[in-house]
Amino acid sequence: MNTPKFRFVKRKSLADFTSENMPNQILCSCLKANTRIPDETILDAFNEAYPICIEVLADIRLHNARSDDFARMSANEPQSSLLRYCFVYFLLSFHEKAPELRRYLANLKDTLEERMPDIFKPILLNATSMAPMLPGTVFFDASEYTAIDEQPILNDTKEYVKIRNLIQEAARLPKAEAETVLHFLRVTVANECCDWDTIIQIKLNEVLTRLDDSNTRSKYYIADGQTRNFIKILKALFGVNIIVDEQGFYITNFSSFAIDTCRFFNTELKTPPHNHLNEARDTDNYMDIIDRFYKEAQDDYALGKALGKKGGKPTIKEHPQGSITF
């Protein structure tokens, strides 16, 4: 069996998952619109599903073969533990390797439809409707959940996801997440209806609100080899609610915040910020940069106290290039 390349670190809040990508946001919105599953249970299911996905992707052929026994293997498994496999189905359906997983996903689909249809059917229809808009994904025929004209059946059976429900649930999300989901829905509906006026207006708004490059770049750079430390510092800033967005609200999307801040310092991230953090957590020196910050603050505080009490002069250190700095 192949060894997984990534080591999963459990997320501490549901917001950590919804800030990572659009499928996670859509899955949460779907569950909130169609079930009464509490956030704590959704978080647990996410944390259990991610390692399963990593393991499946590490050896696709093996898990494709094993999936033939899904029905027998799950016969004695409680429904509560099957919830994670609903998440596995959804997440893998949107992965770039989804076409290689058709056998695995088809067997998993049949099992989940049999064992927990009330929860899985909305997820299945949601995955089916979103897949055409996310290239590289795979989905299956959902004709049994749709009318003859292939439009969703508008009734109260919870066998579909209404756009109005997605809108209502998205509006309840934190501001940054709500804006992302609603923008995605608007663009999707406009594209499906070939509403060029709306599509052009959306693009025009994006251009008009885009800041000039001169205002979004600084003359400073992140030092070579220090990007990971910089992201660790940004994560700490993100957690203590010091930074707000242009509307004055505390930021809720760490990935966007980290990418924009690194770009301001002329550094384009080649991998998502959370990947940098996960790799850093695998080392023994994660806290080194934070400890150095703490020592600098202590030294600065002690120096200020000394100046206040004794009226002494600050210690001046010579800069390597000849200038001086405090």
Task: For the structure shown, list the relevant keywords.
58% helix, 326 residues, mainly alpha, two-stranded antiparallel ribbon, 2 strands, 15 helices
Secondary structure elements and pairings:
Layout lengths: L13 H5 L3 H13 L4 H20 L1 H7 L3 H4 L5 H15 L8 H14 L1 H14 L32 H10 L2 H18 L3 H14 L17 H13 L14 H11 L8 H9 L6 H23 L6 E2 L5 E2 L1
- What portion of residues belong to β-strands? under 5%
Q: What Rg do the Cα atoms give?
A: 25 Å
CA distance, first residue to last residue: 56 Å
State the helicity in percent bands: 55-70%
Main beta sheet strand tally, sense and closure: 2 strands, antiparallel
Secondary structure: number of strands? 2
Number of contiguous helices? 15
Overall geometry: globular
Question: Mean pLDDT score, rounded?
Answer: 77
Estimated structural class = mainly alpha
Which strands sit side by side, in order, in the main sheet?
1-2
Low-pLDDT sequence parts: 141-159, 310-326
| N-to-C series of helices and strands | HHHHHHHHHHHHHHHEE
